[in-house]
Design goal:
Elements lengths: L3 E3 L1 H8 L4 E4 L5 E3 H17 L7 E5 L5 H12 L2 E4 L6 H10 L4 E4 L4 H9 L8 E3 L17 E3 L3 E6 L9 E5 H15 L6 E4 L6 H13 L2 E4 L5 H10 L4 E5 H11 L10 E5 L5 H9 L4 E7 L4 E5 L2 H4 L8 E2 L4 E4 L8 E6 L6 E2 L10 E9 L5 E6 L4 E3 L2 E3 L1 H8 L5 E11 L3 E10 L6 H11 L8 E4 L16 H12 L1
Parallel strand pairs: 2-12, 4-5, 4-6, 5-9, 6-7, 11-12, 11-13, 13-14, 14-15, 26-27
Antiparallel strand pairs: 1-8, 2-3, 9-10, 10-20, 15-16, 16-17, 18-19, 19-21, 21-22, 23-24, 25-26
Helix pairs in contact: 1-2, 2-3, 4-5, 6-7, 8-9
Protein name: 2-succinylbenzoate--CoA ligase
Pathway: Quinol/quinone metabolism; 1,4-dihydroxy-2-naphthoate biosynthesis; 1,4-dihydroxy-2-naphthoate from chorismate: step 5/7; Quinol/quinone metabolism; menaquinone biosynthesis
EC number: 6.2.1.26
Length: 492
């Protein structure tokens, strides 16, 4: 057994019962006392449905104000939550239900039909399933059934990695991983009683889920926006006292386009920007508008951010993900400052391993990402090892080319991947989303030659309606060619 602490929702009910835990733009408001009461009533209902301590309960649900109630209810019961990505196909979901040995499936309103399809698949396990909003909450008769303490070594959640190589694997997060991730973030960003974090990322991803954890660990309000809508979000920042938001690049672009000439109010302290490398022109634009962008680096295995760049350093270190958070260690598998190598991390927020896979012997974790530290120890993430293109023996990093391309007038987004080439082995090819009309490829090539070595300039440019992204909005470079193919077939 590990270190134990009081159940964090009980603790917030003791310290801040009237403080708002959750609010939505539509007017839902719930304080910590109400959140705890509803979570306990739901825990009672789940027990009645046969869910026991140690069960693996899958959530396949869109963001909603029911979601946090289920998270805490399952925690009170002592079950492990398996968070499923609602964008997956039935086949992918069946694999995960089997792999995670799920005992029960809980769906959202919008995912019920997909869940039924999944459970009808031949190899799907026979498990009970029910819809979040259809469960009547029962009055709690005996509080002794429910956890009063949290064991920091106990596995609380499992989330599947995007599985860019082979089958996806379930990352196991203990209560301690989530706890230390939230504490490390607080030591970096500071917390205040008036903090209000806008949550628009999917809660089934670590980036969204970690905001729910921060809320219950700090006693902080979450302003929940179920679907990303830049107008609603900018209005919430302006009018509703939002102090923090977590976004990925494509969301930041949309927020800034919507903001136009406007500027954010002084109470807005932090735009936490993760999800991969960021085009430099976008960061320059944010700097000129005085937007407090904290660039961050993290992954499912690190329970969200593990390195973050503070705004104090942002303008001098544009493009850096900062330094490792106070509880984390991070080093590059390469001894020379400024040279690219694999990023290796260690810390109490790093997952101990994957479900149904042998646990790691080492205490450190090899991320599979490439980066370097400058002479002052600031991290620059260059790219995924798996996305690297090797052209004529030279390493080519797609993110670097994408950053240049998005600086060209009319290019909204760019994705770059490798294509087999008889002479060079592989060459880069670019896929562009443009604002209107066609872009002159000759001019674009000339523009690239100004910033990039010849071998890095894309050999082909393709215009495409939208880039393939996963649910956390990460660009899936390996799917660029098939996305182009699909669009062409659709046109014919």
């Amino acid at each position: 057994m590990g270190e134990k602490i009081p159940h964090w929702l009980d603790k917030q009910n003791e310290l801040n019962p009237d403080h708002i835990a959750l609010e939505t733009p539509e007017g839902t408001v719930m304080n910590f006392n109400e959140l705890r009461r509803e979570s306990l009533k739901m825990a009672e209902s789940l027990l009645e449905k046969g869910i026991k301590p140690g069960d693996h309960v899958a959530l396949l649900a869109e963001n909603s104000s029911e979601f946090p109630i289920y998270i805490h209810a399952l925690s009170y019961v002592g079950a492990t939550i398996v968070l499923l990505n609602i964008r997956l196909t039935p086949n992918e979901l069946v694999y995960q239900l089997n792999d995670a040995q799920v005992n029960c499936l809980i769906t959202g309103k919008q995912t019920e039909v997909k869940a039924l399809e999944v459970l009808e698949e031949a190899e799907a396990p026979v498990i009970p399933a029910f819809r979040m909003d259809k469960v009547a909450r029962k009055a709690v008769t005996d509080r002794t059934h429910f956890s009063k303490e949290i064991d920091l070594d106990q596995v609380f959640t499992m989330m599947y990695t995007s599985g860019t190589t082979g089958r996806p694997k379930a990352v196991m997060h203990t209560y301690g991983n989530h706890w230390y991730s939230a504490i490390a973030s607080a030591l970096n960003l500071g917390t205040g009683s008036k903090d209000k974090w806008l949550l628009c990322l999917p809660m089934f991803h670590v980036s969204g889920f970690s905001v729910l954890m921060k809320s219950v660990i700090y006693g902080m309000t979450v302003h929940l926006v179920n679907n990303f809508d830049e107008r609603v979000i900018n209005e919430s920042i302006m009018e509703r006292g939002v102090t923090h938001i977590s976004v990925v690049t494509v969301m930041m672009q949309r927020l800034m386009n919507n903001l136009q000439e406007g500027i954010y109010p002084e109470h807005f302290r932090c735009m936490l920007l993760g999800g991969g490398p960021v085009p430099e022109p976008l960061l320059q634009q944010a700097a000129t508008k005085g937007i407090p962008v904290f660039q961050t680096y993290g992954m499912t295995e690190t329970s969200s951010q593990i390195a973050t760049l503070s705004p104090e350093s942002a303008n001098q270190k544009i493009g850096s993900a900062g330094k490792p958070l106070s509880l984390a260690q991070l080093w590059i598998d390469n001894n020379n400052a400024g040279e690219v190598g694999e990023i290796i991390v260690k810390g109490p927020m790093v997952s101990s391993g994957y479900y149904n896979h042998p646990s790691r012997a080492e205490t450190y974790f090899r991320t599979g990402d490439l980066g370097y530290k400058d002479s002052e120890g600031f991290l620059y993430v260059v790219d995924r090892v798996k996305d690297m293109i090797i052209s004529g023996g030279e390493n080519v990093y797609p993110a670097e080319i994408e950053s240049v391309l998005t600086g060209y007038p009319g290019v909204i987004e760019a994705g770059v991947t490798g294509m087999k080439d008889d002479k060079w082995g592989e060459v880069p090819v670019a896929f562009l989303v443009v604002d209107n009309g066609r872009i002159n490829q000759e001019n674009l090539s000339q523009f690239c030659y100004k910033s990039l070595a010849k071998y890095k300039v894309p050999k082909e440019f393709h215009q495409i309606q939208q880039l393939p992204r996963n649910a956390s909005n990460k660009l899936m470079r390996r799917e660029l060619f098939s996305a182009l193919e699909k669009e062409r077939n659709h046109e014919h």
